[in-house]
Amino acid sequence: MATVLHLLKSPATTLARTVIDQHVHAGDRVFVVVLPGGVASDLPPDVQVRRLDADLSYTELLDLIFESDHVITW
Which residue range is the domain that position 24 belongs to? Predict the structure, then answer.
């Protein structure tokens, strides 16, 4: 099981949602960080969602990046 971090910086999330669903179904541990301008809508309940500057600092984001096996920016 891999740890996958998705960084959402765009309001266009159709492709991101498809890939996130694939990671969840593969049994990966999935995190989503919503960056300014990004949107996280209707994500699976297993996905942990954080918002930069709302409940996640830049230092914590950096920690998540280094702890993850894969980081994908949308």
Answer: 3-73
